[in-house]
Amino acid sequence: MTYVNGVARAHGAAVQPRRNSAGARALAVPRTYPNACIKGLMPHPRLTVALLLGATVAEAAADPAEEPLRFNMARGVTDTSHHIYDLHMTVLVIVTVIALGVFSVMIYSIIRHRNSRGVPGSQFRGNLAIEIIWTAVPLLLLLTIAIPATRTLLAIASHPPAELTVEIRGSQWKWHYAYRGMDYGFYSNLKSNSESASRLGSHASPATVAYYLRDVDKPLVLPVGERIRLLITSDDVIHSWWVPALGIKRDAIPGYINRVHFTIDQPGVYRGQCAELCGAGHGFMPIVVKAVSPNDFQSWVKQAKQEAAQQKEASGKAPWTMSVALKEGQQTFDSICAACHKKDGEGQPGMFPALKGSPIATGPLKGHLDIVIHGSKKNPLMRPWGKQLNDRQLAGVITYERNAWGNKTGDLVKPQQVEAAR
What we know:
This protein is α+β, with helices and mostly antiparallel strands. The protein is 39% helix and 18% strand. The chain has 10 helices and 14 strands. The strands form 4 sheets. It has a 5-stranded mixed sheet with strand order 7-6-5-9-12. A 5-stranded mixed sheet has the order 8-14-13-10-11.
């Protein structure tokens, strides 16, 4: 057992990050009694183990894809993960045989030649045959490992023609997916129920949220049985796109594109997360991949593009009124800006300023337009959005920021104003 803020916690139990109403993070720990171990109030160790085991099995039952009791490495669902697993098993067998041989000889020698049996110690200064053997055998073992390892690395690093290419861009703290040749892309954010439960003072408990901090509003949908190429980069700091079941972990580096190829062999939902410390919201950047049949994938793409086109057409035809601007602006803000500035506009002290009552959101419109379109010169974390969002989206989100959370400036920013400020 360990103690977190005076609270007893079992080793291995997850301490989930939570946030207070101002956006600052704290630790949410299991609700147990402080100093219970000292006062002798903790359950019997066997009971504690049984409870933890029961909770683990219950979690596995809730998600058949998870195998929390697995001791060995998972084989995964792609050709890449299969190569890695096969190499792992090859090396595991070799080192197991080595360990058994070495320890067997060592234990036999300790017992057979112990002093209590009166075995005299032998004196010798060198043995050419033994020296050759203990040099040649490790060399052969290293070659035995190096050959399949090299084959695996070459297979992973190869770049055969792909049937589908997806561009992945990491940014604090969300992922953007764009399907090449399909004219379709979207942002994938932490699901709202996890966002709500992560705040201190929230009535929602992380224990009641399915896949807490591991679920998103829009998963990456990929077809099964087709060669897929991912082009991974970043808009701001270094991230890392990691999905264990796919055998994929690639850094997302600003100004550099990492490529990876694979083929998924079975449908399912596979979860991962950013695996590179990328700031205060690092733990709130999950990844969800949904693998479906090729026919289902084509149907999904068609439906998603139709919905996006209908939404764009409907917004284009709607008169640009305050209610329309606020509605569209809130949608843009929640999907892009809320990861940093938070849905309540409170921001994150020391990194992302609050928009609620801020001099930017309530001050001159020119300054607000400039910082959203061209970025901030003082804070490099506030990057320019002029190239990623169109005039209507920018007009909507700026209107929303200037009239939400009690700002109430009454300003209705028009797309023509955004175009003129570019």
